[in-house]
Write a structure and sequence with these properties.
Length: 300
């Protein structure tokens, strides 16, 4: 039997697909296309890709936003893609291709990947904080994935942002890496507001306005970490998402977290603090974690 698996990472901005082996190793580089914005176009995207691998794969693994029932593979709400609400993702793919299929929430997939072979390997209590279109999260509690009572543990985008200004914002807005890139690009009057390379080039050149906005973003992320730490008492927080591959990101968040504690001495002197590290797999974590779910690594 073939030892390769087709893995999808369904995101709010892009759809990625790649072939992985049973150890999570990349067989061929993942491809990425703009994400469809309606259900019919979404299915067509998946079918167009999967049809190319009929007879060549042992299963299909899917990471997707929203709340996912791990038994049925039905997606609820759909996160940044509301048209996926009540989508029978697992059943539809399994019936079409007659293969084992697993669907997993994107934040939980990232946590599974890091717990399986990454920065949370051997960690008793940890969090993968995924900075992308929104803020994803996956919790490892007692060295196992924690889903919660309604499959929604780790939905960090739904937390209220630490602000008294109106209108009320959620952390999915204030902690959005895509939003941060767009805001800095707009401020710098770049021709493409999604050009992360140009934004990080400006940061590397110490552009004062870009640095100010970058650090303000890190402050928002640090607040998210501190709020989760007060509730969960974690050992490690791994920063994930494509932005985490930039070498300046995690040190900046570490500095912002330390500065936040200096402003809050009671919390600094009372709470044990987590180690803040870079996730190992960056923007490949969801593909690897979806495979981990398919292979039975998810146990809670």
């Amino acid at each position: 039997m073939t030892n390769q698996y087709l893995c999808f990472d369904i995101g709010g901005t892009n759809l990625k697909a790649g072939l992985l082996d049973a150890n999570g190793g990349q067989i061929q580089p993942a491809t990425s296309i703009p994400m469809a914005q309606d259900l019919a176009a979404f299915w067509q995207q998946l079918f167009d890709i999967a049809d190319q691998y009929v007879g060549q794969i042992a299963g299909i693994a899917v990471s997707v936003p929203g709340q996912v029932d791990p038994q049925t593979g039905i997606v609820y709400h759909g996160g940044a893609l509301p048209f996926l609400d009540q989508c029978p993702l697992q059943q539809t793919l399994a019936m079409r291709y007659q293969l084992p299929v697993a669907a997993e929430n994107d934040g939980k997939a990232a946590a599974l990947a890091e717990n399986w072979r990454g920065s949370l390997q051997g960690c008793q209590n940890g969090l993968v904080l995924v900075l992308g279109t929104g803020v994803g999260g996956g919790l490892i509690i007692h060295n196992q994935l924690y889903r919660g009572s309604h499959f929604q543990a780790g939905e960090l985008s739904m937390m209220l942002a630490a602000s008294t200004a109106a209108p009320i914002k959620i952390t999915g807005q204030t902690g959005s890496a895509v939003g941060m890139i767009s805001a800095i690009a707009h401020e710098l009057q770049l021709p493409d507001e999604h050009d992360g390379r140009q934004v990080f080039a400006a940061l590397a050149a110490d552009d004062p306005k870009a640095l100010e906005m970058f650090n303000a973003y890190g402050h928002q992320v640090a607040q998210i970490i501190l709020n989760v730490q007060a509730v969960m008492d974690l050992n490690v927080v791994a920063i994930g998402g494509g932005i985490s591959a930039q070498p300046s990101v995690v040190p900046m968040i570490q500095r912002q977290y330390a500065e936040l504690l200096e402003q809050l001495p009671m919390i600094r002197d009372t709470l044990s603090q987590p180690q803040i590290v870079a996730a190992k797999f960056h923007n490949q974590a969801n593909l690897i974690g979806a495979l981990a779910a398919l292979l039975g690594m998810a146990t809670v």
